[in-house]
């Protein structure tokens, strides 16, 4: 049976939630990384500027790096999609990032300059460490509680293999086995492409003991900070989607006092307000949740972090 093509239909939605208060235990919970589990200690352009200036004497204004970074990044993604995985001119993701570095800092190409190569190596190394990133305070307690409840935890990220080193250095690898770390560079496509979510679901469904794929999809969860890249495509792929809106920037929370807010029609529900809705947690519909704090995940599954179950397995 194929993956559900219409996760917004009443027939699909009604099966997702069994009570008005909590969701059943998930088959797995998938997490985005950057902006969801960890964040830069300082703005990324500033970290580029500080290392380039202090360690290599490269005189590039911070405001230029800040303004050009998103432009150069998008240009390179367009020219060499998925961090150069399909490009004959880019051997690996490190080369992709090196292309960005030399263009951003306006230095000679790394293949033609030993100094430029040193700059690239230094920055690439820096951005795998806890000097570059910090883990949000609510992450470790939540992941530990979920693991203690026997919930398999996945990574689903538009990233390259350097993520393995980042997870290790941020002490997150204990929660995410490599075989449950799904990266766009490994899958061949990334979010918001639904193939990204379909591929993950297909792989894990084949290892599960659930009889039907629609039933399995009802137990699949994805958590991310992006409405466009995480929330929307995961729900459209038949999963349960969780928007982690730490800064309350989405219209879901900015219109908290206006139940009839104008969201995409497929994300609205007229089934009434569930009991656990509050200022930090919004149950938009049967398989669509928004929260401002990751620990709210424990609430929607009725997990008590102080009283974990006996199962600690993270295997599907």
TrEMBL record:
Source taxon at top rank: Eukaryota
Name of the featured protein: HAD-like protein
Provenance organism: Hyphopichia burtonii NRRL Y-1933
One Gene Ontology cellular component annotation held by this UniProt entry: nucleus
Pfam families named in the record: Hydrolase
UniProt-listed Gene3D superfamilies: HAD superfamily/HAD-like (3.40.50.1000), Haloacid dehalogenase-like hydrolase (1.10.150.720)
